[in-house]
Amino acid sequence: MKKVLVINGNPKPNSLCKSLADQYTSVANNKHKVQQVNIGDLNFRISLDQGYDRVAVLEPDLVDFQNKIQWAEHIVIVSPVWWGTIPAKFKGVIDRAFLPGFAFKYVDGKTIPDKLLKGRTSELIITLDSPPFWYKYIKGNAIYKQLNHSILAFSGIKNISSTYFGPVINSDNNNIKAWLNKVAQLANIPK
């Protein structure tokens, strides 16, 4: 039994991402301890106005988010592609919560910081309005590069899979049912 954190990165209260995250949580709950975070429910100041030059006091929702990341052994990120990558509020959570001393630590004399979230795995579930093939191979797959390379791997979290659903804009009930079934299969796979 693993500790699984499901993050719905879509800030809208009702969305396909929310349905997919709920489906994953429901199915994974049969075999694992699962918690879910819906980015849209979090209250915090998005901007990191001073960068890392000044320590910003974290709002309670961000402290809770950090606690859930530390609790988790496996992190499932469900996110839409907005303007090529993740929604601004989701990026704001990363900017504000994945801080030095929490996600990574700079060490004197080393150019690469220590990764403080090692030992965790992740999987990405991505929705988009363009065909996945087009987005991944023609447009450059920016969301994967951002999430996997620039955030997760930088912090020590190893991504084990990525699943893309699209185009959402032209989808019908049959598409959505198939995508929900696929997420149920993903949630049922031992982590």
Would you write up a description of this structure?
With 191 residues, the chain is α/β, with parallel strands linked by helices. The chain has a single domain, classed as Rossmann fold, CATH 3.40.50.360. It has 6 helices and 7 strands, in the order E-H-E-H-E-H-E-E-E-H-H-E-H. Strands 2-1-3-6-7 form a 5-stranded parallel beta sheet, sandwiched between helices. A two-stranded antiparallel ribbon has the order 4-5. Strand 1, helix 1 (16-28) and strand 2 form a beta-alpha-beta unit. The mean pLDDT is 95.
Which SSEs are present, and which pair or pack?
Layout lengths: L2 E6 L7 H13 L4 E6 L21 H12 L2 E7 L7 H10 L6 E2 L8 E2 L5 E7 L4 H7 L3 H14 L2 E8 L7 H16 L3
Parallel strand pairs: 1-2, 1-3, 3-6, 6-7
Antiparallel strand pairs: 4-5
Rg to the nearest angstrom? 16 Å
Q: Strand tally, please?
A: 7
Structural class: alpha/beta
Distance between the termini: 9 Å
Percent strand equals: 15-25%
Order of helices and strands: EHEHEHEEEHHEH
Oligomeric state of the chains present here: single chain
Short note summarizing the structure:
The strands form 2 sheets. Strands 2-1-3-6-7 form a 5-stranded parallel β-sheet, sandwiched between helices. Strands 4-5 form a two-stranded antiparallel sheet. The mean pLDDT is 95. With 191 residues, it is α/β, with parallel strands linked by helices.
